[in-house]
Amino acid sequence: NPWNPLMGTASIDDDILTVLWTPEQLLQKVCELASQITYDFSSSPSSSPPVVVGVATGAFLFLADLVRNIRLPVAVDFVRAESYGSGTIAAGAPKISCEVKLDVAGKHVILVEDIVDTGNTVSCLISYLEGKGATSVSVCTLLDKPARRKVHFKLLGDGKFYSGFECPDSFVVGYGLDFNERYRNLPYIGVLKPEMYE
Ligand code: 5GP
Ligand code: MG
Ligand code: MG
């Protein structure tokens, strides 16, 4: 890559075993999701535009690309839920460590996640938003690992489930997803080399 200023030296890409989705494939899918959301939330003219709530930090790039392609004047906010201590093993029930700033009472909320794995995080956040008085909660996740689901969460009101790609049952990084807070800045999503966990 002639644009890589570190050409010839160690690169972040060297830590990746396989690329699952390229930046082009990610953007294509994000645009499809944004079109579907635009369509679904335009059809009812009486309801106010939705509040898009990203789950920090993992959803930050996905949310940025998603909202730029939603053709409605949505509000944007973040919530923080900690489910993993460090590494790749879930640390039990997540807890909300940073609350939403916006008032979501009476609003349609779209919760934006990088990945739904066991379903614990999304389930906890749906209850949280229900407690804040949201009219409906939809979930828009870039990746879904249905094989690993433990919690069969229920969306609030007439909320919908939007999902980009089904993810194989391996630990993935990039496009917001981390391993010990690293690799979030990869522009693609891939599988880390096993030796990077050690
Ligand atoms: P859940 O609560 O559904 O089990 O997990 C949700 C969270 O776990 C995600 O938001 C994400 O932060 C993390 N997670 C689950 N699977 C992966 C993965 O394959 N890679 C990374 N980087 N994080 C994951
Ligand atoms: Mg997440
Ligand atoms: Mg993480």
TrEMBL record:
InterPro entries: HGPRT (IPR050408), Hxn_phspho_trans (IPR005904), PRTase-like (IPR029057), PRTase_dom (IPR000836). It is found in: Cytoplasm. It catalyses: IMP + diphosphate = hypoxanthine + 5-phospho-alpha-D-ribose 1-diphosphate. Residues 25-179 form the Phosphoribosyltransferase domain. Its EC number is 2.4.2.8. Pfam families: Pribosyltran. Keywords: Cytoplasm, Glycosyltransferase, Magnesium, Metal-binding, Nucleotide-binding, Purine salvage, Transferase. Pathway: Purine metabolism; IMP biosynthesis via salvage pathway; IMP from hypoxanthine: step 1/1. GO terms for cellular component: cytosol. It is an enzyme of class 2 (transferase). One of its GO terms (molecular function) is magnesium ion binding. Its main location: cytoplasm. Its cofactor is Mg(2+). GO terms for biological process: GMP salvage; guanine salvage; hypoxanthine metabolic process; IMP salvage; purine ribonucleoside salvage. Belongs to the purine/pyrimidine phosphoribosyltransferase family. PANTHER family: HYPOXANTHINE PHOSPHORIBOSYLTRANSFERASE, HYPOXANTHINE-GUANINE PHOSPHORIBOSYLTRANSFERASE. This is Hypoxanthine phosphoribosyltransferase. It comes from Centaurea solstitialis.
